[in-house]
Amino acid sequence: MYHHLCANVLAIMSFTLNRVYTEWYRNKGYDFTITSSTAYDHKWIYGRNIFESIDRIVDELFENYLSRPDVRQPILTQYCDGHQVQCRNRGWMTQWGSKALGDQGYSAIEILRSFYGNDMYINVAEAVSGIPASWPGYDLTIGVTGEKVQQIQEQLNAIAKAYPAIPSVIVDGIYGPATAASVKKFQNIFGLPASGVVDYPTWYKIQDIYVAVTRIAELQ
């Protein structure tokens, strides 16, 4: 029972962290990080009973998440009940299936790998903090420098591989005319006002397209 619960807790936490890491909903224009609907994410009901055994496992594993070699972000470990609700896709973990494997003596990582593949690993977070929002809180325009500019430059270059009309830029953390021109072309392609300035809507559209072209919100 312990290993089965550990496997499920790890899958749930990694799924949630992927939603946070990719800012999946903010990129779609919503002002929240995760839903409370089993149609999309997990269901959480305020005031429901808490089981001590599960509470203890969550505390024990709180800094852990699931990833693959050379993949920085937590994996979107999708799962389903497997009895009352069947999984929509192959490669999802079934909760009843994980219980059966646990009853056979499988460890947590063996259970997870049997569903998600042998390249799944348990990682430990370097730090735990509040829910982040990547938007810097100010527009990026010519003359602005720093890590946020560098982030946008790196993301634009990744997007440019899928959309060659977008000019690649030098990643130097300096928002110069070349970066503004690249942003302006991005805005043209994706139906935003072509100002060449990374405002709030442009920032999250860049995040949205970056997540899509790099596939970091997918299981594989």
TrEMBL record:
Q: What is this protein called?
A: Zinc D-Ala-D-Ala carboxypeptidase
Any single GO molecular-function term of the entry would be: zinc D-Ala-D-Ala carboxypeptidase activity
EC nos: 3.4.17.14
Enzyme kind, highest EC tier:
hydrolase
Q: Which domain of life is it from?
A: Bacteria
Family annotation (SUPFAM superfamilies) = PGBD-like
Task: Identify the InterPro entries for this entry.
Answer: Peptidoglycan-bd-like, PGBD-like_sf, PGBDSf
Alphabetical keyword list: Carboxypeptidase, Hydrolase, Protease
| Ranges of residues in domain Peptidoglycan binding-like | 145-205
State if Hydrolase is listed as a keyword: yes
What species is this protein from?
Answer: Blautia luti
